[in-house]
Amino acid sequence: MIPLIAARAALSAVPWRAIGAALLAAAIFSAGWVANGWRKDAEIERMKTVSAQADLAGAHKAMEDLGKASAAIRTKADEFNASQATLAAKVDQAVKEFRNAKKPLPVDCRPDDFRVRKLSDAVDAAKQAAAAR
């Protein structure tokens, strides 16, 4: 029985109220810590969502700009092809007329008005082709 009395005396000497208060404080602190963690996790997720939405908006804008640029490139390519076709026809016609000239030009002679006009037309066509690029 003496050991039981000694155990009761030892247990009565322990400050149970202080231990209980410390455990209660630790439990409240832990609950606050967990709640703050949940709050911060929610804030981080919100920031990730905002960032992802901004990235998505940027990607949509880039795709829109790419579509506009490709349409502009296609339009310019079509214009270039059309101008090349007309200029090629003009150049071919000028070459054909020079090759099929009725009176060939003597060596030390100046070209007549018809040939000068055709040469000027060929130069103008070449300038148009250069300006189109």
UniProtKB/TrEMBL annotation:
Keywords: Membrane, Transmembrane, Transmembrane helix
Membrane spanning stretches: 18-38
Highest taxon above the source species: Bacteria
Presence of keyword Transmembrane: yes
This protein's name: Uncharacterized protein
